[in-house]
What we know:
This protein has about 220 residues and is mostly helical. It has one domain. The chain has nine helices and no strands. It has helices spanning about 5-20, 25-55, 60-75, 95-110, 120-140, 145-170, 170-175, 175-195, 205-220. Helix 1 packs antiparallel against helix 6 (about 145-170) and helix 3 (about 60-75) packs antiparallel against helix 4. The two termini are about 15 Å apart.
Amino acid sequence: MNLLLPFSAVLLGYVAALILKVESRNRIKLLLAFSGAFLLSAVASEFLPEIYEEGDSSLGIYLIVGVFVQIILEFFSKGAEHGHVHIHRKMHDFPYALFISLCLHALLEGMPLQGDNSMLYGIAIHKIPIAFIFSSFLLTSDFGRGKTLMVILIFAVMSPLGSWLGVESSWIQAYMLPIKAIVAGIVLHVSTTLILEASEAHQFNLAKVLVMLLGAALAFLI
Length: 222
């Protein structure tokens, strides 16, 4: 199941981009806020305790490395992981830097996903709005449905590929604990950014607060 869920989530985002209008981004922002709170709660309640139970405090450096890895990736992705791609802006050249950055992010976060847990569900939920935004961006830029679908399928395979490598590669298994810490840092950066950006212009938004509380609570319950 851990191989199919993130893959299916990306395809769901692509289908939503075909069906829904771009103006539905307000609902997508709610889903981004929900996924950010879910991911943060999952990291705090499950992922970090598991990492420090298996290792020691020296793993903290890998956590910080993960934060900076994500900062570097966002330099190329322009913040697509938290909805900063401008859908209305057309491009004639394929955004290779954006695509490669998103794929690397997905590959890394898939490596420690080995079974059904709150992290798996959180990452899968987060992929829906990201795939919607990226697909909408490509479709608006007149890349066509066929080429967009091909690109989205490659992106969809990245997390399952990372998960498969985490099981089959003895080298990755040998360094799995530091990899988990790096991924935890990546997810911490993305999730906290999503939560901080949920209050636009520092204004209170009841709907976003409620969906974030719901996301955080669900992660604890799963």
